[in-house]
């Protein structure tokens, strides 16, 4: 609600008014005026306006009030200046203070002043259109078109405003003095307004504006909608760009759960291609820290508003205050601080309503009421039903109702004396009925403890906070006052305690791990209920659970990955987690962690490829392949970088898995180099490659930074997507690029082997446009299956030339060049009783076997220099061999080199080498 208050500091008296209705959601134009009349009826001089309309208001005067204070310190906007105890829980913008009382006409003029509108001004007048509804928070696609009508005095009718591709409802203001829109460069403004004759902009749009386009003709509604649909869809997340590399994710269908140690766990949901949401995961039931163990420390929830009390319970949606007190009237129980806003809090009570002798019906039909007074009792755990002897002609029935479901007959009684059972589910009601009033009985829920949960919404003091009920809190069945209890626990996650840094699914539970306060702890949801973190005192098999890795040292959990058991990577060790018997499910009473290896894990989320979990060792210098042995029931973690020990000399930043057409792990490094690790264990293949973008020289020159990589399923192959940072036309830019498919078909002109490339495929031309993203860059050109001359992008286009002659082509690949280089390992073959290592060798003949390749060079490396010859490969879909290439030279290493520095395909199948070895003397 809107409130305006006046304070007389001298007399400590306050007067004011408050709107009778709450403000509408979204941005509102608010005005409060005061006619400066003091005295005991001063509040009568206050008037409130909401969106140009006087609001119904309640006035509060004070017989002690004399006059408003007249110092700057006593003016407060958005908070109560007296002690700052009350705050506006949202935003204020465009605040103006006037030293006169505004009239209704003044307020109307302010409201209709044109801020946030499209304005057309001339020397004679101004017309404008303003949307009738405020835009919701977040980014929007906004368009404005103008088509001048014949009557200039109705020029405003020619304005159409669009929001997110649709025509917006607007109010038009015309001006009889308007003649025509001004035609000077200074007269077009976006995001600000300057009236004729003014020397400065007087109104501003005080939020963000991006990607502005101006058209020289009037767009139709269809064209505006088409522009809107062409814009990449995006939503705002709570994470910064730096934090994006620290998040861990796990997914179930169209829902992704996201973990980051500095943010409440997030839930990303997809409802359609252009309909996504991201929100705090709405956890219920927990998790919590250890319960309070001090009988003197009490907590109580008192209802103030929201959903009304329901007999013995404050139900979900009730709002009020959560207060801390001491049984001995001391003041040492001060559990709250301002960083706990958003945290859950557990409030447990021993229930007084665990027994009833009331029968819901005397007709043995389904109960209709659901209150304790009508005999319905909420039950979880053990319960008993006892009856006095029942005549065989009489019958009693026990009914059960789960959640919002229907009442179901659970059991009938004729002559029975007692019955007992255990209820495992949450939110279950039981009730008794009878067919004769002579039937007497009692339903008793044994040792019932009610687990209430509230969410802190605002901080008042170390002993009081505002809260909303998440799970029913016990009341006294008569008032909204608090029922205090020493049985309480603080939420495990908050801005104060930190949030989990990693997340995964395992055995149909959602698992979180490692907060700042509990770096070595695992938390799971209930089975099948991924956002319910409740654990009961009964220790039911499907309860949520909390498990710390107690192992002689606190080792921060970095990641979790599910296999037959769950692998857990911590800063100092790797663990196996599961039930004692790996064939059994994890339960609160059957869970066990066992140390496996002590390499220590990095915090990059691991991936699964074929039979192994791949994770980075601490500091990221090694990639390890963790495999589970079903015989020993343990994990082993082999070094995947054993034969490429310098490949991670620059630490990794991101990792993704491609499975089709080959099994490849893609890794980005801090220095911008992209790595690929091909892993086909059935073929005993494990090989590394480096990918350096815009590397078109004989030396490794990093011309761009691969910052992140992701893989998504494609129709023919898995698609590899990359975020690449480049310097283009003296500006730092980022491109999202997708690798071309490995199989481009049978036509060589369709092969694209350039970076950040563009393909033209149409009628023959010598001009390729649409290259603005490579402005000023020297690009490689491959046209109609032939390598053309390189060209420099000018005005977003190039002219294609072949041997310096302008030449047309119909299929053209254009992009940044790079150099492909293969260097074999040191030449070595098995020899009985001897080794070739360290001995002088001479390669005197090499044959290169290749497929679907063009041109290329091959040779040897001696003393750090390369001696190359043209391979002269010709394109074919069948494998071919080069002619025998000879190049003498003596060396201990005997490296063979293959290079392709043109925008063409080149696939090496094998090298066939003839060589001689220095004799042992």
Structure explained in plain terms:
- This is LamG-like jellyroll fold domain-containing protein.
- Pfam families: Laminin_G_3.
- It comes from marine sediment metagenome.
- By secondary structure, the protein is an all-beta fold.
- The chain folds into 7 domains: 3-106, no CATH class; 112-230, no CATH class; 244-279 and 492-606, no CATH class; 297-350 and 450-490, Thrombin, subunit H; 355-446; 744-818, no CATH class; 821-917, no CATH class.
- 2% of the residues lie in helices and 42% in strands.
- It has 2 helices and 69 strands.
- It has a 6-stranded antiparallel β-sheet with strand order 19-21-32-31-22-34, with no helix packed on it. Strands 54, 56, 57, 58 and 62 form a 5-stranded antiparallel β-sheet that branches. It has a 4-stranded antiparallel β-sheet with strand order 15-16-17-18, with no helix packed on it.
- The N and C termini lie far apart (99 Å).
- 31% of the residues are buried.
Taking all residues together, what is the mean pLDDT? Answer: 88
Tertiary shape: globular
Oligomer: single chain
How much helicity do the residues have?
under 10%
* Order of strands, widest sheet: 19-21-32-31-22-34
**Count of separate DSSP helical elements:** 2
Rounded to the nearest angstrom, the radius of gyration is 37 Å
Number of domains: 7
Number of strands: 69
Structural category is: mainly beta
The end-to-end distance, rounded to whole angstroms, is 99 Å
As a percent range, the share of strand residues is 35-45%
Q: Tell me the major beta sheet.
A: 6 strands, antiparallel
Unreliable stretches covering 5 or more consecutive residues: none
Organism: marine sediment metagenome
Protein name: LamG-like jellyroll fold domain-containing protein
InterPro entries: ConA-like_dom_sf
């Amino acid at each position: 609600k809107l409130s305006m208050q006046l304070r007389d500091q001298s007399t400590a008296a306050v007067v004011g008014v408050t709107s009778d209705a709450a403000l509408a959601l979204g941005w509102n134009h608010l005005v409060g005026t005061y006619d400066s009349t003091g005295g005991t009826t001063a509040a009568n001089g206050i008037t409130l306006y909401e969106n140009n309309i006087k609001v119904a208001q309640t006035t509060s005067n004070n017989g002690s009030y004399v006059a408003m204070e007249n110092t700057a310190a006593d003016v407060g906007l958005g908070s109560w200046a007296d002690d700052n105890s009350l705050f506006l829980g949202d935003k204020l913008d465009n605040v103006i203070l006037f030293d006169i009382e505004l009239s209704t006409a003044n307020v109307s003029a302010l409201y209709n002043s044109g801020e946030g509108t499209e304005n057309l001004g001339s020397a004679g007048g101004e017309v404008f259109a303003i949307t009738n509804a405020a835009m919701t928070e977040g980014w929007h696609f906004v368009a404005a078109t103008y088509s001048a009508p014949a009557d200039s005095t109705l020029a405003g009718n020619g304005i159409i405003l669009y929001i997110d591709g649709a025509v917006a409802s607007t109010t038009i203001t015309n001006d009889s003095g308007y003649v025509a829109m001004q035609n000077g460069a200074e007269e077009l403004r976006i995001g600000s307004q300057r009236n004729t004759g003014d020397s400065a902009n007087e109104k501003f749009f005080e939020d963000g504006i991006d990607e502005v386009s101006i058209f020289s003709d009037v767009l139709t509604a269809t064209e505006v909608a088409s522009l809107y649909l062409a814009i990449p869809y995006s939503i705002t997340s709570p994470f910064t760009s730096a934090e994006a590399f620290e998040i861990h994710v796990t997914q179930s269908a169209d829902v992704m759960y996201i973990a980051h140690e500095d943010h409440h766990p997030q839930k990303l949901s997809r409802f359609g291609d252009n309909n996504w949401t991201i929100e705090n995961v709405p956890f219920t039931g927990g998790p919590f820290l250890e319960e309070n163990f001090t009988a003197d420390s009490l907590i109580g929830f008192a209802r103030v508003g929201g959903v009304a009390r329901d007999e013995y319970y404050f139900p979900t949606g009730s709002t009020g205050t959560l207060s801390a007190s001491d049984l001995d009237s001391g003041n040492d129980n001060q559990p709250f601080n301002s960083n706990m806003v958003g945290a859950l809090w557990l409030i447990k009570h021993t229930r007084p309503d665990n027994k009833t002798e009331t029968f819901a019906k005397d007709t043995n039909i389904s109960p209709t009421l659901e209150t304790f007074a009508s005999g319905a009792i909420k039950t979880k755990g053990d319960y008993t039903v006892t009856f006095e002897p029942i005549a065989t002609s009489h019958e009693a029935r026990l009914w059960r109702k789960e959640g919002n479901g229907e009442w179901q007959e659970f059991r009938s009684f004729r002559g029975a004396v007692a019955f007992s059972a255990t209820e495992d589910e949450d939110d279950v009601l039981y009730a008794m009925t009878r067919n004769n009033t002579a039937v007497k009985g009692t339903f008793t829920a044994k040792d019932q403890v009610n687990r209430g949960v509230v969410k802190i919404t605002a901080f008042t003091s170390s002993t009081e906070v505002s809260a909303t009920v998440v799970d029913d809190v016990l009341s006294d069945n008569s008032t909204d006052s608090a029922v205090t209890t020493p049985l309480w626990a603080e939420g495990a996650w908050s801005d104060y305690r930190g949030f989990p840094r990693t997340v995964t699914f395992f055995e149909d539970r959602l698992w979180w791990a490692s907060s700042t306060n509990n770096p070595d702890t695992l938390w799971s949801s209930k089975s099948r209920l991924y956002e319910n973190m409740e654990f009961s005192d009964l220790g039911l098999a499907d309860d949520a659970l909390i498990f710390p890795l107690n192992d002689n040292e606190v080792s921060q959990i970095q990641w979790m990955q599910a296999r037959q058991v769950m692998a857990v990577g911590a800063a100092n060790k790797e663990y196996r987690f599961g039930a004692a018997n790996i064939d059994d499910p994890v339960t609160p009473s059957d869970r066990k962690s066992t140390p496996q290896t002590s390499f220590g894990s990095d915090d990059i989320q691991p991936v699964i490829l074929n039979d192994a979990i791949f994770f980075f060792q601490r500091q990221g210098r090694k990639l390890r392949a963790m495999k589970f042995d079903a015989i020993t029931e343990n994990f082993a973690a082999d070094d995947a970088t054993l034969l490429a020990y310098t490949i991670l000399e620059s630490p990794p930043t991101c990792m993704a898995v491609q499975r089709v057409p080959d099994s490849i792990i893609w890794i980005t490094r801090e220095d911008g180099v992209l790595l690929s690790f091909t892993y086909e264990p059935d073929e005993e293949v494990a090989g590394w490659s480096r990918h350096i973008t815009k590397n078109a020289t004989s030396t490794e020159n990093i011309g761009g930074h691969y910052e992140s990589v992701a893989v998504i399923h494609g129709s023919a192959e898995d698609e590899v997507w990359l975020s690449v940072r480049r310097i283009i036309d003296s500006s730092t830019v980022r491109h999202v690029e997708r690798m071309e498919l490995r199989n481009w078909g049978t036509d060589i002109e369709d092969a694209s082997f350039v970076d950040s490339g563009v393909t033209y495929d149409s009628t023959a031309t010598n001009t390729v446009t649409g290259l603005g993203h490579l402005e000023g860059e020297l690009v490689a050109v491959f046209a109609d299956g032939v390598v053309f001359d390189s060209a420099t992008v000018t005005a977003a286009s190039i002219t294609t030339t072949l041997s310096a002659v302008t030449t047309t082509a119909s299929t053209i690949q254009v992009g940044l060049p790079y150099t492909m280089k293969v260097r074999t390992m040191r030449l070595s073959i098995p020899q009985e009783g001897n080794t070739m290592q360290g001995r002088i060798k001479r390669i005197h003949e090499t044959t290169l076997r290749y497929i679907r390749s063009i041109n290329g060079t091959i040779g040897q490396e001696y003393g750090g220099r390369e001696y190359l010859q043209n391979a002269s490969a010709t394109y074919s879909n069948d494998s071919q061999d080069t002619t025998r290439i000879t190049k003498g030279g003596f060396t201990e290493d005997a490296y063979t080199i293959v290079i392709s520095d043109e925008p063409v395909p080149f696939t090496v199948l094998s090298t066939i080498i003839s060589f001689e070895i220095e004799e042992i003397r």
